[in-house]
Every structure is written in structure tokens, then in C-alpha cells.
Amino acid sequence: MSAASSGLLPPDTRILVLSCGKAGHDINSLGIAAALGGDVLVMRVEPHPLFAFFAPWGPPDPSEMLDFNWPDIIIASGRVTAPVLRVMGAKSKGHAFTLYLQDPRAWRSRFDMIWMPEHDQATGPNIVKTLTSPHGLRPNDLAQARSCPDPRIAALQGPRLAISLGGPSGAHVFTPADYEALVAIARSGAQAGFCLTITPSRRTPPELMQTLRLALADLAPERCFIWDRTGDNPYVAMLANADCIVVTADSVNMVGEAAATGAPIYFYEPGGGSPKITRFLNTMIASGAVRRFAGAFERWTYEPIDATHEIASEVARRYLARKASLPPKTRRAE
After folding, report:
1. What pLDDT score was predicted for residue 329?
2. Pair 178, 205: CB distance under 8 Å
3. Which of 41, 108, 241, 265 is the most buried (most CB within 10 A)?
4. Rg of the chain taking only CA atoms, in angstroms
5. Among 39, 92, 98, which residue's Cα sits nearest to residue 73?
6. What is the pLDDT of residue 331?
7. Sign of the Cα pseudo-torsion (178, 102, 68, 328, in order)
8. Which residues lie below 8 Å from residue 269, measured CB to CB, with a gap of 6+?
């Protein structure tokens, strides 16, 4: 366990994060846990394949139901965590506040609070929606990255264009045509006077990065930085110090993180797509934070979008109201 130094709740608040092991889900859960503050424990949920097959509808794997001191708040994301969260909440007899992120698709009424993105069509009294997803980029992280920028980013001279790259997913594919389109966007940025900062994600194809390196090799080092996965990832510094951001639209999380900066955001849609992501992109366009790249760069402003704080504040409010209505609980020794 590690104690957070600040947050919305007292530092002795016990928060359990049920992890499914997928980075996209864990970013959501850990971002909210960090904003809440308290003493955070992360437990990986790895059920037997039979129990995983029936999640989220079936029972939890009994081996996952550890007997430890009951937490005050349990946060879970990923379908295999839903049965564990449901049963743990029931066993706590109301003392553990349960938060599930995304649509559990089953037993919605069994969780104290469910977060879903605004573009999701489900509704209910325990469902809270925000425009973007929760993440770990807190305002003080961005402020710190601006006041003491990564030297690799600080070395770039002039306005900066950050390009944040995703990769193939269940909904999107990245083809050579997409590689060339992203090269064209990068070249357009350089021609518009921007210095380029480019970072891949875990899913970014090596072929895409190689294509970009070759196509941008003529730019001087003070005008182009491409992270080659050596040293610390300057992702936060890139976003915090960007005058404009381009994001591939395969990642809802990356779009949300970019929107926390207040910088103009363009998105590029690789091949494929899904109705759900299209709805998300349309809501982001309507918010004024995001535009589809159409060949030219413009400047505009909007208030940074901090969904993480919004969600964590609502969790804290509901948790404290619940706590005030319950008799004091007796903690078991660990």
C-alpha cells in the first residue's frame, strides 16, 4: 500500500483498485484513486478461464475472493472484475462503496456508482457520465511539466505540435495509407512553423514509427523530437507544453488526456471505426475542444476538461454521505 499526500478524502481512506491487467482500464481506475487520495491497494484479478468466460454475468472465481481488511472504496474496470466487485460489495454489507467504470452490462443495480462516457446511451440513478474518460493526468502534473519541462521538449524552438499515436485495436486498423496520412499531417505542421514532438503508445506499429522517422529526417533536431522508447516517455511534458495536439482517434483515453491541457486538438481517424467512438468524437467536436484535421492548423481556446476530478468528486460526495448514514465498522486485523 502507498499513502497519497493529498486528495479529496482523508489519507487513511482505504481504496482497493481491482485491475484486469489492461492498461486502458487501469489508467481510468488509478486516475480516480489518485484524485481521491488515501491508502491505495491494487489487486490483479486473474480468474480461471471458465469464470472469465462467464464474466461479467457469472460468479467470481472463489480464489479471487481474498479475506482481507475491507476497504472503504472499491474501484473496478474490465469485465472480469465485475463479479468480484459485486460480491465484495455485498459481503461488506454496505460499508464498501463500489464504483465500476464503463458499462458492466449486468447487475447494474448492484453497484453504488457506475461511470460511463457521455456518449454511452445507458441511463440510471447510479450512472454518472462525463465527456471524457478519467486518467492520471492531474492539473498539478501539467503545471509541473510546464514549469520544469523535460529538456528534450524544452530544446525545441518555437510553437510545438504534439502528435500522440495509438495503434490497431478492436475497432481500428493502421494501414500504409494511414502511415502516409500521418506523415502528411506532420509535414503540414512543420510547414506551418511548428516544432514536432511525436510519441508512440504500446500499440503503435514499429513500421509507422519508421515511416515517420524517414519522412522527417530532414528536420533539424531543434525542430523535431520523436521518442524512440529509450529513457522516460516525455508524454506528459509533450502535452503540457504543446500549442496544438494531434491525436489518432483509436484511443478515447488519449483524446481525453489531450483535452485536459486546454490546447487545440485535432484528431485523425485511422481505418475502421465504431459507432461508439464516432459518438464520442462528435460530442468532443460539439464541446469545442476537438476538430477533425482538414489540412490546415488553426488556433482556438476552451476550458481544460478534467473528467477525473469531476468523477472523483462525485465518488467522494456519495461515499461520505453513505459513511455518515452507517454505524461505525470494526476493521479486521490484516
Report:
1. 59
2. no
3. 265
4. 21
5. 98
6. 47
7. positive
8. 172, 248, 249, 281, 292
Please write the tens of the pLDDT for every residue from 148-195: 999 999 999 889 999 999 999 989 999 999 999 999 999 999 999 999
Q: Where in the chain is the domain with CATH 3.40.50.2000?
A: 139-304
Answer yes or no: are the C-beta atoms of 31 and 136 closer than 8 Å.
Answer: yes
**Which three three-digit cell numbers place residue 295?**
489540412
Cell numbers given for 103: 458499462
Q: Which CATH superfamily is domain 139-304 in?
A: Glycogen Phosphorylase B; (3.40.50.2000)
Sign of CA dihedral 31, 116, 246, 209: positive
Strand-pair category, 224-226 with 265-268: unpaired
For 2, phi and psi rounded to 5 degrees? -135, 135
Instruction: Count how many Cα atoms sit within 13 Å of the Cα of residue 265 in the half-sphere of its side chain.
Output: 29
| H or E stretch covering 100 | strand 97-101
Q: Give me the pLDDT at residue 333, please.
A: 39
CATH number for the segment(s) 2-131+308-325:
3.40.50
330: left (phi over 0), alpha (psi -120 to 50) or beta: beta
* Cβ atoms of 40 and 17 closer than 8 Å: yes
- pTM listed for this prediction: 0.88
In angstroms, rounded to a whole number, what is the distance separating the alpha carbons of residues 166 and 223?
Answer: 22
Q: H/E/C letters for each residue in 252-285?
A: HHHHHHHHCCCCCEEEECCEECCHHHHHHHHHHH
- Nearest-angstrom CA–CA distance, 50 and 226: 43
**Cα dihedral value 205, 207, 210, 215, nearest 10:** -110
**Dist. CA 246–CA 263, nearest whole Å:** 10
